[in-house]
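Deliverable D4.2, example record:
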Amino acid sequence: MHLDFCVEAVREAITKYCKHEIVKPDQGTQFTSLEFTEMLKGHDIQISMDGKGCWRDNVVIERFWRTVKYEEVYLRAYETTSEARKYLHEYSAFYNTGRGHQALEYKTSGEVYFINKVRHWSLNPQDWIFIINPRKLSD
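Output generated by the structure prediction step:
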């Protein structure tokens, strides 16, 4: 991957979706470059990197992609890129809001993340729907 692609992908994700508090990239030159790290710092995003070659660097995301492959990709024969994109988008929504995780006491990752955010922000429960489902803002 090229540096420009990585920087632009993160900027687009921040603009379209949200800004995360922390990013855990690997030790690739594009992720350790001054331009990439300064862009993250400029958005007040913390950077977490383990030592070069450390097995912990990507264990969580590698496990996620394994789950995506076994629960979605290997079960379908996508005809087009747009079809793959559509189903992967649907699976991502399911993974975050509908699939319980053993390590989270069978809560969804969305429940755990957003409930902790709500507690942190001290919002009332009636406000949670706006955090959990931003589409409700347009209703």
